[in-house]
Protein 1
Amino acid sequence: MKRNILMIMLMVIGVFTTSAKELNEADFEPTHNVIKVNYGPGLVYSEMRELNTVYKTSSSYDLSVDYCHTFNKGFGFGVNVIQSYLNAIGSNDFYAGASVYYAKEFKNGWYFDASLGLGYAGNDYSTPEGGIGVFEQIGAHYKFTRHFGVGAELRSLSCSYSTQIERPGHYSFEGSFGTNRIALTIGLQYYF
């Protein structure tokens, strides 16, 4: 499945790069909207608790879809949706939230951006929980046409959940728990 997704992304990149043209000054228009789809590996560096078992770290695979809008000075807002599969426990963290967004676009096709967001976090662990998530990202992208680009992003996601006291068979602790991860993703962007 992961190889198929990677192969599809590479084929799409190949199709778009064959028709790519250099943006000249007359063609250059500032981008105000972007839709991004990113996928890549990550590392969960916090303790995870599932069925009375504590895991120290885990690898993860993150898939995200983002919509971002900028105003004239580069500042704007974003809407971010992330699914993060945690290998150690075989479950997912989900995040959906809004972010403050900043982007800087250059006439040579490079596009740099950063986000800081807050939103809802949920999971599909053996006992699903809801909570709060904090999202951060910084990215570098290259626009090979006026509307399409590829790029890489360094992303961080922290999910915090609360749990009840003494859940038989599941949690024997009280208070909050959660996951913290960092991921390096690659993806496609659509600018309009």
Protein 2
Amino acid sequence: MIRVVVVLSCIFMLQGCVYKLVTVPVKVAYKTTKGVVKGTAAVVGAVIPDGDDDEDDQKKDKKD
């Protein structure tokens, strides 16, 4: 009986530690991936123009 109480109390006291062990690596991986994706998108956008300027020119021609 005492062992059950000790185990349950340890589980409740260590919940914060387990939460940190799980969430911190996930947050780091998310931020790293987010930065890599943004950098890749910027490089691809610089290398391969998507033609947004052409669309803007066509809209200006229609207004005139």
Protein 3
Amino acid sequence: MKYFTQEALNPNDCTLELIKKIAYTYRVIKMADGSAASFCLN
């Protein structure tokens, strides 16, 4: 059985940069009928 430590929960710098890029370009727009559409800007 593997035990998780605090160090195992911390992502490396490359992973953090990827998450930041996705979060920066990800958008959700609310439509007039109440539904939501998500998209990613390039």
